[in-house]
């Protein structure tokens, strides 16, 4: 897959199936658009292109809050998902005040007409341009609008997945994403307490703007130095010890190595329970033994 800033001089000239949208998470609803794109690319002997934005368009329209910078995936994972879904060319354009003022007609003239389009694919609710143009504005193209995909009679959407992650329902998030919700980060030093209670934990600090699942204890898989292990994670303030900062920590099963400075990827599989402020360390250890049993048995 080639990733480019959208410019007339950088667009590929071969016939292409153009998929339009923002695609936070590239969830099962989004994946349906790419399935159609692959079908059409085969029959029309065309490439697949996506024209999208690196950041959330709401930044231009809404009062700022930090969540506007967050995504369901890291930038790296987002690229991997586009590639896995068959995208050949990813064209990025910044969603700015100037961009937001373009009408649907301007967008077609300045962007679509620069590409050699064999077909256009959009989602069921696609609107574009300052005039809120619909697919009718794209009727000069071979245009496909993909119907909404539901799960448990409810639309699959980035908003629904975001809510599931923030409430700790990572199983629902995973089911709607079609893959496991993940966070990557550097393994850093904590209080060096974990080893003294028989449960060393790799403290994972992410530099990506992503949603952190709700505080609690989770069954996870963790990838470190190219290998994947089962583990159990804690997200919280280590209330039992009066901790002040929120950490993501993973006790990794069948693992005995020093990994400070390594990059680890944590895949969230299931919420086990909420965080508890225990009266003493013994009660915490007893609870962690139980968490371990659940995490080891989870399939
Ligand atoms: C599976 C698991 C469950 C945990 N549950 C709790 C909990 O309920 N309450 C709590 O205060 N800390 C909990 N912790 C966090 C521990 O307090 C923390 O890992 C320990 O203090 C070590 O911290 P350190 O990495 O800074 O040395 C849990 C940690 C793990 C790995
Ligand atoms: N099974 C394991 N799970 C997690 N970390 C482990 C494990 N075995 C060894 N380690 C190492 O020990 C460190 C965690 O020990 P811990 O006492 O909790 O210290 P810290 O407070 O610095 O996290 C990890 O960062 C890692 O380098």
From TrEMBL:
<keyword id="KW-0067">ATP-binding</keyword>
<dbReference type="InterPro" id="IPR023468">
    <property type="entry name" value="Riboflavin_kinase"/>
</dbReference>
<dbReference type="Pfam" id="PF06574">
    <property type="entry name" value="FAD_syn"/>
</dbReference>
<comment type="similarity">
    <text>Belongs to the ribF family.</text>
</comment>
<dbReference type="InterPro" id="IPR004821">
    <property type="entry name" value="Cyt_trans-like"/>
</dbReference>
<keyword id="KW-0288">FMN</keyword>
<keyword id="KW-0418">Kinase</keyword>
<comment type="function">
    <text>Catalyzes the phosphorylation of riboflavin to FMN followed by the adenylation of FMN to FAD.</text>
</comment>
<keyword id="KW-0548">Nucleotidyltransferase</keyword>
<keyword id="KW-0511">Multifunctional enzyme</keyword>
<protein>
    <recommendedName>
        <fullName>Riboflavin biosynthesis protein</fullName>
        <ecNumber>2.7.1.26</ecNumber>
        <ecNumber>2.7.7.2</ecNumber>
    </recommendedName>
</protein>
<keyword id="KW-0547">Nucleotide-binding</keyword>
<dbReference type="InterPro" id="IPR014729">
    <property type="entry name" value="Rossmann-like_a/b/a_fold"/>
</dbReference>
<dbReference type="InterPro" id="IPR015865">
    <property type="entry name" value="Riboflavin_kinase_bac/euk"/>
</dbReference>
<dbReference type="GO" id="GO:0008531">
    <property type="term" value="F:riboflavin kinase activity"/>
</dbReference>
<dbReference type="InterPro" id="IPR015864">
    <property type="entry name" value="FAD_synthase"/>
</dbReference>
<dbReference type="GO" id="GO:0005524">
    <property type="term" value="F:ATP binding"/>
</dbReference>
<comment type="pathway">
    <text>Cofactor biosynthesis; FAD biosynthesis; FAD from FMN: step 1/1.</text>
</comment>
<dbReference type="Pfam" id="PF01687">
    <property type="entry name" value="Flavokinase"/>
</dbReference>
<dbReference type="InterPro" id="IPR023465">
    <property type="entry name" value="Riboflavin_kinase_dom_sf"/>
</dbReference>
<dbReference type="GO" id="GO:0009398">
    <property type="term" value="P:FMN biosynthetic process"/>
</dbReference>
<dbReference type="GO" id="GO:0009231">
    <property type="term" value="P:riboflavin biosynthetic process"/>
</dbReference>
<dbReference type="InterPro" id="IPR002606">
    <property type="entry name" value="Riboflavin_kinase_bac"/>
</dbReference>
<keyword id="KW-0274">FAD</keyword>
<comment type="pathway">
    <text>Cofactor biosynthesis; FMN biosynthesis; FMN from riboflavin (ATP route): step 1/1.</text>
</comment>
<dbReference type="GO" id="GO:0003919">
    <property type="term" value="F:FMN adenylyltransferase activity"/>
</dbReference>
<keyword id="KW-0285">Flavoprotein</keyword>
<dbReference type="GO" id="GO:0006747">
    <property type="term" value="P:FAD biosynthetic process"/>
</dbReference>
<feature type="domain" description="Riboflavin kinase">
    <location>
        <begin position="176"/>
        <end position="299"/>
    </location>
</feature>
<keyword id="KW-0808">Transferase</keyword>
């Amino acid at each position: 897959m080639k990733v480019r800033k959208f410019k007339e001089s950088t667009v590929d000239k071969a016939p292409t199936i153009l998929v339009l949208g923002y695609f936070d998470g590239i969830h099962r609803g989004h994946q349906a658009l790419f399935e159609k794109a692959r079908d059409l690319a085969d029959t029309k002997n065309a490439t697949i292109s996506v024209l999208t934005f690196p950041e959330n368009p709401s930044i231009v329209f809404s009062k700022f809050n930090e969540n506007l910078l967050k995504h369901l995936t890291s930038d790296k994972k987002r690229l991997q998902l586009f590639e896995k879904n068959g995208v050949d060319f990813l064209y990025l354009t910044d969603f700015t005040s100037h961009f937001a003022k373009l009408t649907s007609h301007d967008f077609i003239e300045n962007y679509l007409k620069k590409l050699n389009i064999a077909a256009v694919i959009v989602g069921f609710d696609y609107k574009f341009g300052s005039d809120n143009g619909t697919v009718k504005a794209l009727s000069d193209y071979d245009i496909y609008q993909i119907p909404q995909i539901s799960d448990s009679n409810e639309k699959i959407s980035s908003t629904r997945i975001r809510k599931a992650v923030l409430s700790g329902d990572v199983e629902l998030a995973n089911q709607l994403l079609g893959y496991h919700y993940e966070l990557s980060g550097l393994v850093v030093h904590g209080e060096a307490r974990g080893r003294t209670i028989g449960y060393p934990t790799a403290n994972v600090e992410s530099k990506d703007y992503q949603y952190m699942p709700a505080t609690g204890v989770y069954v996870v898989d963790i990838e470190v130095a190219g290998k994947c292990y089962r583990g159990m994670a804690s997200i919280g303030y280590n209330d039992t010890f009066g901790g002040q900062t929120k950490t993501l920590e993973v006790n990794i099963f069948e693992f005995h190595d020093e990994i400070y400075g390594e990059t680890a990827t944590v895949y969230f599989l299931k919420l086990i329970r909420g965080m508890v402020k225990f009266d003493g360390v013994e009660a915490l250890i007893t609870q962690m033994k139980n968490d371990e049993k659940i995490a080891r048995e989870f399939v």
